[in-house]
Amino acid sequence: xxxxxxxxxYFDECPYCQIVLAALKExxxxxxxxxxxxxxxxxxxxxxxxxTGRGTVPCLYIDNKPMHESRDIAEWLxxxxxxxxxx
Length: 87
Ligand SMILES: N[C@@H](CCC(=O)N[C@@H](CS)C(=O)NCC(=O)O)C(=O)O
What we know:
By secondary structure, the protein is of the alpha+beta class. The protein is built from 3 helices and 4 strands, in the order E-H-E-H-E-E-H.
């Protein structure tokens, strides 16, 4: 299975982002993700709103397709890590 491009829009103070950051660490996928801090770089928040109509984080772009909701993202990360481990 080919690797997907993963980009996380987040900021540290957000508890929902911490759920996703924990999942990234648990799966080791933190080394595969490009991080964009929307508080440090407001242009990324603008991009998020343009792309999705929502400025909330976390948002994980999977091959340029945005996914919101921390629990959905964490679940997807665990599933993806399992698939990657099988190959
Ligand atoms: N249900 C969402 C909640 C996300 C959320 O409310 N994030 C807050 C930060 S903790 C946010 O982005 N608020 C808008 C803002 O700060 O601009 C999830 O679980 O991911």
